[in-house]
Design brief:
Layout (H helix, E strand, L loop, with lengths): L2 H6 L1 H46 L5 H13 L8 H13 L12 H4 L2 H10 L3 H7 L3 H23 L3 E12 L2 E11 L4 E8 L6 H16 L9 E7 L4 E8 L10 E4 L4 H4 L5 H14 L2
Parallel strand pairs: 3-4
Antiparallel strand pairs: 1-2, 2-3, 4-5, 5-6
Length: 291
Amino acid sequence: MDDNKIIVSKEYKELLKSIKEQIKTARNKAIRKVNSGLIELYYSIGQQIVEKQEKSSWGDDLIGQIEKDIKRELPDITGFSRTNLFYMKKLLSLKLYKRQGKALTNFDKTINCESIELLKDSFKESYILDFLQLSEQAKEKELEKSLVQNITRFLMEMGKGFAFVGKQYKLTVGDKEFFIDLLFYNYILKRFVIVELKTTEFKPEHIGQIGFYITAIDRDIKTDSDKPTIGLIICKTKNDTIVEYALSNSNQPTGVAEYKLRSELPEDIANYLPNAEDMQKVLETNSEESK
């Protein structure tokens, strides 16, 4: 049978729709099951810590010792830092868990949407990936998602005059589409600020990519009253964070703009943008807390 006839047939479309719905349903069930299992684990750990502290004189030194031993004996599993172990103790105060008859838990009945949000505030979703030791590709996607959230929050809170424009902001150049990770506008500097996030080590081609985006924004989005766009490249690897700004070299002839990386910004710009060192510290602190 002709492959094209299969693809366009109503019978095939119904089959494909059914398969996709089953995949989505199974995936959602798996996620809920993992979340429920982890919450049960966190509660159990928190309960054991509280009970042991009440019966002994160890105090909070117990939590520090548990953290060290887990890191040493289970080095591939993260999410059990001192901070997170304290969060596990706090789960008891949420009163999400009650024993019912022979059932160990009744999470399905007692954890409502509001409580789930409280838990999500305390525990990063990436811990699920680390706990299950999923593929590096899955972890990289979660790392990128975490970077987007952290950088957006940091620039809005610590930068001066930042307004959020969009995530995965679409640029159309010719007949092709390109997507900027994060786009901001600084209304004090009157400049667009592009942020590109990389979960790999810094590569020279990153300069070319962000230079292309800067040119496109300056040509198609920027108005006459706006000043040239600024690019920000953030490379986050397992052991290091690199933060660099890309600025157009205005001395070059029009159409031959050259983009260079600068950790030190011109004074008129630096007053309103977080410097690279501050951003590195914030990202590395976030990274440490997720271990």
